[in-house]
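Lab channel / #folding
Pinned by the channel admin:
"Please post every new chain as: sequence first, then the structure tokens as a reply. Keep commentary short and put observations after the output so the thread stays searchable."

First post following the new format, from NK:
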Amino acid sequence: MLQIDNIHKTFHPGTPNEVRALRNVSLRLDAGSFLILIGTNGSGKSTLLNAVAGTFLVDTGTINLAGTNITRWPEHRRARLVGRVFQNPFSGTAPSMSIAENMALAARRGKPRGLGWALKGKLMGELRDRVRALNMGLENRLNNAIGSLSGGQRQALTLLMASWLKPELLLLDEHTAALDPKSADQVIRLTHEIILRDKLTTLMVTHSMQQAVHLGDRIIMMHRGRMLHDLSGAERARARPEDLLHRFEEVRRREQLDGNVAEMLRRNYV
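Reply from TO:
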């Protein structure tokens, strides 16, 4: 279970570049839940993932995962509990190392690492079986450098690596945004299969309204560092892409109206 209570994060405070990225964000995500985060650029959705992953420490508030307060933990310590797949297919792996070596590192996350023995025997057989399940023919290319693969192949392997040890929380940060449509569909299918099979608690950021309505059991829309809409239960089940787009349009109109009012006041009173 993930429990976030009243977290705040401001970048460059007290300067002209000050950004209030997260403002009083609270969230409870039960074990096995699959939450989709949507929002415009700068809304705070990826910032929230980074806060949970430990990319930076929040200014105030607490983050608890699996009953443990991880608020002040550094990123490398949280990695024992958190699996993550980034937007860039070339992040999260060592490109010059082989598929097998990258997978072995994932299998030994949080434990003493030694590739010399890790790639022998039982682990090598399990690795080949799991890679074969991707249906990409990569089980016969385990000694190839992972950097030589296509973006879709690499992202599929990164997903497999991030979920190998069944983490307490899986973070997916627009992990199909850089892929071509066919590869994106394949990675999304694998994502859905792995999350359902292993009952992984998942937090996923996406710009795709199609993905948002076809994946997960809850949708949260963020705006300017706050949670604006939280759709679950029957409301989530009824959600369609056009419904979500309508909510975005409402925000745009409201901001345009607020901007026009502010400009009118400025002209009248300044």
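NK: Residues 164 and 209 are 28 Å apart (CA to CA).
TO: also worth noting, The beta strands are 2-11, 19-29, 34-38, 60-65, 68-69, 82-85, 169-173, 202-205, 218-223, 226-232.
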